[in-house]
Amino acid sequence: MKQHDVVVLGGGPAGSTVATLIAAQGYDVVVLEKEHFPRFHIGESLLPATVSIFDRLKVHEAIRSAYILKPGGKWLYGEKEVPGEFALYDRRASFKDHPYSYLVERSSFDKILIDRSMEAGADVRFGTEVTDVISENSRIVGVRCRDEAGVESDVCGRVVVDASGLRAIIPSKLRIRKLAEPHRMGIYAQYAARPTRDDVKAGWFIGQMFYDGWTWLLRLPGDRFSVGTVLTVERFRQSGMTPTHLLERLVAENPLLNEGMTPDRHRISDVIVTGNMGNSSESLSGEGWVAVGDAAYFIDPCYSSGVHLAMKSAEMVADLIMSSSKEAPVASSLFVQYQKDMRQHERTVQRMVDAFYIASRNTSVQKMVTTCQGGYFSRRFVTFVGGDFQANRSYIARVRNYCRIVGSLFGNNPARAPENHPHYLHASSSSAKRRPVVDSGSSRN
Ligand SMILES: Cc1cc2nc3c(=O)[nH]c(=O)nc-3n(C[C@H](O)[C@H](O)[C@H](O)COP(=O)(O)OP(=O)(O)OC[C@H]3O[C@@H](n4cnc5c(N)ncnc54)[C@H](O)[C@@H]3O)c2cc1C
User: Fold this and answer.
1) β-bridge pairing 152-162 and 289-291
2) Nearest CA to ligand 1 atom 29
3) For the chain, where do the domains classified as CATH 3.50.50.60 start and end?
4) How confident is the model over 362-404, as pLDDT tens digits?
5) 301, CA 20 to 30 Å: which among 12, 275, 347, 408?
6) Could you please report the per-residue DSSP string of 217-238?
7) Rounded distance, CA 311 to CA 298, Å?
8) How close is the Cα of 329 to the center of ligand 1, in Å?
9) Using one digit for the tens of pLDDT, what is the confidence trace for 146-179?
10) Is the CB of residue 247 less than 8 Å from the CB of residue 188?
11) Does residue 434 or residue 35 have the better pLDDT?
12) In the predicted structure, residue 203 carries a pLDDT above the cut 90
């Protein structure tokens, strides 16, 4: 059987980045993708640290001309705002030359990236679902896949790169995929309307925190919005609502969503649910394989870190593969440092996510965060939310510890509980008894 240099599972941002970089250097790369592009995907708010990868892939011009420039992200804590304007970076920021990013429509963004992979020489097979993993002597040597006519075939390579997103084909097969606690879920849809807030008009990502959860509002090209919420599965169940009902009530009652769009707003997509928010693979590589992007791990998206981590991890893996001999199977030792670096990113972002949720539950922590605006604190924060996760490790550890200390010292000062929180939805006693219905599954992701 033919042995390719690299077999990539999935053609999202992680898969297309690996494929483009390696194929452009003359390697034989196959990408197996079950969908046809363009296809819907969530994750529209990008970070400035990713812009240098767009330059390297030679897609920056296409992205600049198609999407909305994003100057930063802003969090609403009740009545207060915490802005993170990318131009106010710390002097160590990697994105000094381009302190901005983009709000993108993922269907066309992912197509720009995969088209570039094909242009670079990758063999991209759409409509091809990977159904199994092939191992020989404990080494993964390839995969079995099925095309739309139902025809099965095996595809083998010197290394298999798992870029299959939350599906995480190889870690799932090896049973090394673990779900984070507490279980959180995302509920989202697109709306047609015009923006009413100046910051939304100007391309800012806006998030609003509520007890143990948050909502987002961001503009897409053509008077459309991405609207959604992240909350614990337990709170969703307690609400007794369906995902559609819950999202529509948020749009009607949540100040950000209600006031951020013109009253003629209307939903133009299905309401989609992603259940497995926050999960990680115990190992990110092994004999014959390596995982990139969400297939490696997926962290709560409150800092819009997903696409950056997907493309950054893919870039790191592509460089490692290209540094190895073209004649032999890729050794697992090649990815040891990659695993260490990726775990470091994961810990750093996860610590900041912990701090975020501590603040969501405690008004004293919220007060601390909102009064620490300006100067050193803000610049380090901006550098972190711009995507420089590795460079800010000690700062992040300090922030998380301050939040924990203030949170425990003033534990008797919790943010108002969901039942009487004006930004939250609470169930009526009759609806609480109904079982929730999930409108559509995370299979859309
Ligand atoms: C509610 C929510 C909000 C988010 N918001 C943001 C945000 O604002 N900004 C941000 O950066 N990130 C955000 N994310 C995260 C972002 O969606 C992901 O991190 C990002 O898409 C990961 O890219 P990827 O290439 O690893 O995986 P994906 O983009 O999921 O690509 C994986 C590809 O693999 C294919 N595939 C899967 N299984 C198979 C199979 N068996 N055979 C063949 N192909 C297969 C899929 O069709 C897909 O095209 C959000 C996520 C959620 C859930």
Assistant:
1) parallel
2) 12
3) 3-67+105-176+282-345
4) 777 777 777 777 666 678 888 888 999 877 667 777 777 767 7
5) 408
6) EEEETTTEEEEEEEEEHHHHHH
7) 13
8) 28
9) 999 999 999 999 999 999 999 999 999 999 999 8
10) yes
11) 35
12) yes
Any idea which architecture 180-276+424-444 has in CATH? 2-Layer Sandwich (3.30)
Cα(141) to ligand 1 centroid in Å equals: 24
* Radius of gyration (C-alpha) of the chain in whole angstroms: 22
Mean of pLDDT over the chain: 88
pLDDT at 136 over 60: yes
In the 3-class helix/strand/coil scheme, how is the chain assigned residue by residue?
CCEEEEEEECCCHHHHHHHHHHHCCCCCEEEECCCCCCCCCCCCECCHHHHHHHHHHCCHHHHHHHCEEECEEEEEECCEEEEEEHHHCCCCCCCCCCCCEEECCHHHHHHHHHHHHHHCCCEEECCCEEEEEEEECCEEEEEEEECCCCCEEEEEEEEEEECCHHHCHHHHHCCCEEEEEEEEEEEEEEEECCECCHHHHCCCEEEEEECCEEEEEEEECCCEEEEEEEEEHHHHHHHCCCHHHHHHHHHHHCHHHHHHECCCCEECCCCEEEEEEEEEECCCEECCEEECHHHCEECCHHHCCHHHHHHHHHHHHHHHHHHCCCCCCCCHHHHHHHHHHHHHHHHHHHHHHHHHHHHHHEHHHHHHHHHCCCHHHHHHHHHHHCCCCHHHHHHHHHHHHHHHHHHHHCCCCECCCHHHCCCCCCCCCCHHHCCCCCCCCHHHC
Atom 6, ligand 1: which residue's CA is nearest? 43
Q: Which two tokens stand for residue 240?
A: 């007794």
Residue range 167-194: mean pLDDT, rounded: 94
Residue 417 CB partners (closer than 8 Å, separation 6+): 211
CATH top class, domain 3-67+105-176+282-345? alpha beta
Residue (of 197, 206, 220, 199) closest to 74 by Cα position: 206
Q: Pocket residues for ligand 1 (CB within 6 Å)?
A: 9-15, 32-35, 41-46, 129-130, 163-165, 167, 169, 186, 188, 228, 274, 293-295, 301, 304, 306-308, 310, 445
| Position 291 pLDDT exceeds 80 | yes
Span(s) in the chain for CATH 3.30.9.100: 180-276+424-444
What's the predicted TM-score (pTM) here?
Answer: 0.92
